[in-house]
Structure prediction request, 908 residues.
Amino acid sequence: MSMSFTRKNSDLARMDGKKFGLDQIMTVLCFLILTTVVILPVVMIIYNTFWDGTKIDLEMFGRVIFREENLTAMKNTVIIAVISTIFATIIGVFFAWLLGRSDIPMKGLMRWLFSIPFMIPPFLAAMAWDMMFSGRGGYVNRFLMSIFNLKSAPFNINTLAGIIVIEVVYYFPFVYMQVVSALERMDPTLEESARIAGAKQWYVIRTVTLPLTIPAISSGTLLVLITSLSNYGIPRMVGSSKNIFTLPTKIVDLVNRAGGDFQGIREATALSVVLVIVVSIALFVQRKLLKAGRYDIIKGKSMRPTLIKLRAAKYPLLIVSLVFLTLVVLAPLVIIVLVSLLRAYGLPFAWENFTLANYTKILVNNKAVTDSIQNSLFLGFSSGFVCLFLGVMLSYVIYKVKPKGSGILETLAVLPYSLPGTVMAIGCILAWSGAVFGITLYNSIWIIMVAYIARYLSYTLKSCSASLQQVHVSLEDASRACGATHMESLADVTLPLIKPAMISSFFMVFLPAMRELTTSVLLYGPNSRTLGVAIQNLRDNGYMTQAAALSVVAIIIIMVCNGVVKFITRDRKGV
Amino acid sequence: MKKILALVLACMLMLCAAAFAAAEPAGNVMIYSSAGEDVVLAIKEAFEAKYPGVKLDYYAATSGKCVTKLATEFQSGTVACDVFWPADFSTTISLKNNGQLEQYVSPFAENIDPQFKDPDGYFAGARMLVFGLTYSTIACTEDEIPDNYDGLLTDNFYNQILMSDPSGSASTRALVYAFVNNEKYGWEFFENLKKNAAELESSSGAVNNKVASGSYKLAFGLDYTSRNLMADGSPINYKDTTDMVAMAAPICIPVGAPNLELAKLLYDFILDPQGGQKILTQFYTTPVVSGVDLPEGMLDSAYIAEKCMPIDFADLSEKSTELLDRFDAIFKK
Prediction:
């Protein structure tokens, strides 16, 4: 089917008297943009790992990889990533189904709660959890100990399991966001026919609904897996005092140990090549698995899926969901807000210790902060739009045009995301300091934008491709048969069908870009400080309360932008 | 004749004036600094007030990030930094050995103790980092805090001591070096610390926060970070020890600095007792130049120079990996 589809579009273009069809142009464009913008930093990292300045050096790579502590770090990384991915997927799919397909009340509130983890920098989320459940005097621990007269703390977050729990609750919205838009656009007739044939509700979910949303689930799962593999903030905050190291924390340690010597930094890049390899394998496996099925479930005569009545289960499920969301989403947020109001870090949360001084310090007459807010807004919107545009085009090329090497295209687009932010930044400096085509972006805001695009493209690509895989080719064919050009059928048929995925994927880039820390902190120049840099500097200098205050400001800005964009792009009645 | 002479004189005067105007420094100068953003901002303000034609741009981050940024710039072939201010000497020594530093002796460098500057004039200390004991006023009382490091090995501090990881913190690395090369302490000291269940945190910021929240009784703390938090009202206190560990954070000019003349001007300004050195004291940072007026409780660099354990940074720079590996073998088991 895909072959005839490709041929048809180019044939049609030739009939119109055009030498190259839209498909070919987009394919070439994708390869060009990916190789220059996205993959170049990764190439620079790999090149510098294996080239010591005079000759090819494989010995260092082997030596670093097989060092005992690095092997332990790899083991930890894989354990954390695999377990937290499994749980995040289960919870994410459950909530997606609950909100997408059932008649549970208070959906608006829950949807809003789901977007919150995206707005909180990982280190702050980890700090909040550490403050609640630390084995050494966490608030919740102390509370439980005093109530039940316990001798020792009931919870200890500073363990491997603790890191996994934080990552699960931090990442399950990734899966949720991917799956919910797929569920909302699903052809209800498939489920209905199963029901009419006598299948029970649970049986339908298990054998019809879930299998059909596998592209969305698997792309969400993959995003969680890659994010967890490359996450630095959470294991660093929670694990270092108990000597729990992961690849990203080891990599950053190696960078810091280098002490001005690039040979030392090369050891760090060697370790990050391992991450690149692991992620490539995961991508390969995902493609192999997905090849088995067909998922184009949105055909003609589509209508809104019917909502499933939960009946007696409605209110118990609502209570469970709300309690869960309050615990995992609101509680950390509340802790961050409370810390931002403290006179000094470490004081107990008591009325006399609260003040607004942290906010006045960072907001009043602080040009550095107001500049960084402007820069982050610019970066958030611009990289969000560019990633959205690229992501739609790429997924269209990969899943609908299907040129030779589409698998390579997908892998290339996702790889940069597997690098820890620090390593990505090093790659960007090496790539954009005039080494390639004499282009110098270094120390300007553009290098940060290019880095964000490289880093976050995988979000929009995964999100849009999952949605696009559900759109049946017959819809576009029909539009072409009615005389629409290729461009028109794209704009009027295909894109509107994946609009929810497009909007949510924009936010998946915009939200983290607004508060990104680790990449921009190495890349920023005199006129391109970002909010993340400002937060990081406050934190590095020990001003945790002001760092929390600035994060709260960031979260408020993000929420306002979120509301404005949702308002502009809302579904208008009668259209 | 007189007319001609007057004309010549007038011309010369104008030329002089023009020359003087041209000598008025102008342009942009870039500093990479580990000294904390508020310090850099205060220096920027004062420097730009003194030289209105100059704009001081800065990159303020932890020492590790400054170093990574510069090292990557050298690797890529474009240096954007004029004055480089990391936290410890081993960085500047390895830069010097790689031939990546300009030689420059500031007139103010004379007032710096020899152990806090490079004998060949490639870098000079610009602010002091003094280690002491930072303790929680919630978790313990002032009387519990020992006067010296050997007092940490008691049961009272079992699993109550925190330290930043020398892998990530260059100053802690120097502290480890100072201890292990001191007859009184040696590696045994760290083995005993580990036996007393001391723990590591990734950065000195994290260390301070953990102590401030009362999770640990005390930590190996830096004077200025602790004093800044104390000034904010954080429930911690700081105590200088008898055996001192102190080092100077050096400034230097990297080879390929875009604006060498302005770099030297800024270098001088930072070492000026009436300029940068005086500004440091507003942020509880000990000046490296002796004789600057100090806030209550802070020590003069000449006194510190006399009391502190010697650190051979050239040797540390060479044996850094070895040192960290041995430390990790004790602490990260």
